[in-house]
Write a structure and sequence with these properties.
Strand content: 15-25%
CATH class of the largest domain: Alpha Beta
Low-confidence stretches: none
Radius of gyration: 21 Å
Number of helices: 12
Number of domains: 2
CATH architecture of the largest domain: 3-Layer(aba) Sandwich
């Protein structure tokens, strides 16, 4: 591993436990909750130079840097976080947490219930995007954050960033929404439903009680990932990458084994996913995404954004059919009608929904300009 001057270097995942119970939107009071998080850069004296970055559906708190010298890959948004990068750690104190209900350090269905000594499984309460935001706020309070200079996220992370601006209007200075939406389309909900059904239909799922079993619902989780992964790409990206090329053969086998490269790719994505993710977490997190709909909760999107005081940057990608630009424009138009400070950019990309993780150069220029010139004040003072 070779660390360049623009990398945050070796980092450590830390843990914070919220001892009191938190009341979820469902009415259930739940706790304690342990939150896994990482930080990059230095917090200024008045606790106001903070940027909260929020991961997408199956991400974790490890957004930048390396955990040890043997790591082959850095954190999931390393191209965006570090000295002189979009989220410049010379200026900002960057925080990233693992989502509530996750399986990478934050309390979720695979965590041990202190009352039983066994994993929560399906006794873990169903939660919402708003619940996850309240949990993150508890961590920020613990870290001494007085105000967020920015909250930024892509996909599901963008939903949480949006909810932060709505739930804590006096706390958020700016909000960066990337490849996201204010609510899923019926088609997107349908894809999530197929993924969940794949897991629940796996005979090894055992109604969520599989943690002490030899066989886990790996096939169901793998199939769920395969379905989800299709939505992260686009037709152009898939055609450019695979076309109709066969996998290590020159002719069809006339059976039901893998013929095409795209089949092999999806199978590989499913197989590696089961090594790092929990099937129950997938159920809970996708359900939280399905439920997210501030327009329905507040009566309209206008009412949801009415009290926000943040400056907004909204970025979409022209090839993203999961959360198309039209959904970003709906958010932008609503903010404009309210007289809010909002900037919008649609980026041309052949990468589909995954572009927010891949098109870092153009995103970096836009975000750096927004943070450095669009916002007023020096965060280091």
């Amino acid at each position: 591993m070779q660390i360049d001057k623009n990398n945050v270097g070796l980092v450590e995942t830390k843990f914070f436990t919220i001892d009191e119970k938190i009341k979820f939107e469902s009415g259930v009071e739940f706790g304690p909750i342990t939150v896994a998080y990482e930080t990059y850069g230095k917090l200024n004296e008045d606790g106001t130079n903070v940027i909260l970055v929020i991961h997408a559906l199956t991400g974790d708190a490890h957004a930048a840097g390396y955990h040890n010298e043997n790591d082959k890959k850095p954190g999931w948004w390393d191209s965006m976080i570090g000295p002189d990068k979009a989220f410049d750690t010379n200026k900002y104190f960057v925080v990233c947490t693992n989502i509530l209900g996750g399986c990478s350090g934050t309390t979720g269905p695979s965590s041990i219930n202190p009352e039983t000594g066994k994993p929560y499984g399906l006794s873990f309460p169903v939660f919402t995007i708003e619940d996850t935001v309240h949990v993150k706020k508890k961590l920020l309070d613990f870290l001494g954050v007085k105000k967020l200079y920015a909250v930024a996220g892509g996909s599901m992370g963008g939903m949480q960033a949006m909810q932060f601006a709505i739930s804590y209007p006096d706390y958020v200075t700016s909000t960066i929404l990337i490849a996201t939406t204010s609510r899923l389309s019926p088609q997107a909900i349908a894809f999530n439903a197929v993924g969940r059904n794949s897991i629940i239909s796996d005979p090894n799922w055992n109604n969520g009680d599989y943690y002490d079993k030899e066989n886990k619902p790996d096939r169901g989780l793998s199939n769920a990932r395969m379905v989800g992964h299709i939505t992260y790409l686009c037709e152009e990206a898939m055609y450019n990458k695979f076309g109709r090329k066969l996998q290590n053969k020159n002719h069809y086998d006339f059976n039901f084994d893998i013929d095409f490269q795209v089949e092999s790719y999806l199978q590989h994505q499913g197989q590696i996913f089961v090594d790092r993710f929990d099937a129950n977490s997938y159920l809970y997190i996708t359900k939280a995404v399905d439920y997210f709909d501030p327009a329905d909760k507040y009566g309209s999107l206008k009412e949801a954004f009415k009290n926000t005081d943040a400056k907004f940057l909204v970025i979409s990608f022209d090839s993203d059919w999961l959360f198309p630009s039209s959904q970003s424009k709906e958010v932008v138009n609503t903010l404009m009608q309210l007289g809010k400070d909002v900037s919008y950019c649609e980026i041309k990309s052949p990468c589909g929904h995954d572009a927010f993780l891949l098109e870092y150069e153009v995103q970096s220029k836009i975000i750096k300009s927004f943070l450095n010139t669009h916002l007023q004040g020096d965060t280091n003072e």
